[in-house]
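Changelog note: in this version the structure field was regenerated for every chain. One regenerated record is shown below for reference.
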Amino acid sequence: MPFTRRAAALTAAAALTAAGLATEATLLPRTAEAAPRSGAQTPSVLVLRTDGPATAAHRTAVLICDPVGGTHPDAATACRTVALVDGDLTALAVDEGPCTLEYAPVTVHAWGFWQDRPVAWSETYDNRCRLLRDTGTLFAF
């Protein structure tokens, strides 16, 4: 599936799950930059979602890498984090620092494509601190 159709489909899915995201024009790179490329230059698009405790709102962000964009507040750093593990989010282990022992589970999801490979990943963390320690800025939105 060409990148532009994939990006449009993921963007539409994110827009449906999170009202109030930026307009489609700001989510997608310009058409000239969206042409399919091969190898390490293949554009990557991930829809990221956090599901917190029952009292917390669900949050969704779109991460576009190469060119960097989307609705993620720190897309460049998040793209570098995913690039370090080559899209294998199970390999994330950013910071092993301490966290409180509170139990407020947070489930995170990532769907999309990394370097033209499908990504479908979910993980539940004991609390937001543990989430941020293990994933860095990827789910910091």
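Spot check on this record: Residues 109 and 122 are 4 Å apart (CA to CA). The first strand starts at residue 44 and ends at 51.
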